[in-house]
């Protein structure tokens, strides 16, 4: 796999978009769990965890159609 293909998958498909979103949510979740002594961060960790779980389902339905971002199926 060349860097061009990797770049195309990450930047031009829904799979790439959701993967980048999952990475950001994982970093937020890890930060919140590391600093869990503060009550608001516990709620933020819960929100990040729920969003992370939702992106797993969204990633499963991600079409690899370039330049077409689709909404998740549960969006109505």
Give a summary of the structure in a few sentences.
By secondary structure, the chain is an all-alpha fold.
The amount of helix comes to 55-70%
- Number of domain units: 1
| Uncertain spans | none
Q: Roughly how many Å apart are the termini?
A: 36 Å
Number of helices: 3
Major sheet: none
Q: Hey, roughly how much beta strand do the residues contain?
A: under 5%
Order of helices and strands: HHH
The average pLDDT value, as a whole number, equals 79
Principal-axis shape: elongated
Using DSSP, what is the number of strands? Answer: 0
Class computed from helices, strands and strand pairing: mainly alpha
Spatial extent as radius of gyration: 15 Å
Could you please describe the fold and organization of this structure?
The chain is 70% helix and 0% strand. It has one domain. The protein is mostly helical and 76 residues long. Helix 1 packs across helix 2 and helix 2 runs antiparallel to helix 3 (39-60). The chain has helices spanning 3-12, 14-34, 39-60. The radius of gyration is 15 Å and the shape is elongated.
Topology:
Elements: H1 3-12, H2 14-34, H3 39-60
Helix pairs in contact: 1-2, 2-3
Output the keywords.
elongated; 76 residues; 70% helix; mainly alpha
């Amino acid at each position: 796999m060349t860097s061009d293909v990797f770049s195309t998958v990450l930047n031009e498909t829904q799979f790439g978009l959701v993967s980048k979103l999952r990475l950001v949510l994982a970093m937020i979740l890890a930060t919140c769990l590391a600093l869990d002594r503060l009550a608001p961060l516990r709620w933020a960790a819960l929100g990040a965890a729920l969003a992370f779980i939702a992106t797993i389902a969204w990633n499963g339905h991600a079409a690899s159609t370039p330049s077409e971002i689709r909404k998740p199926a549960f969006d109505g």
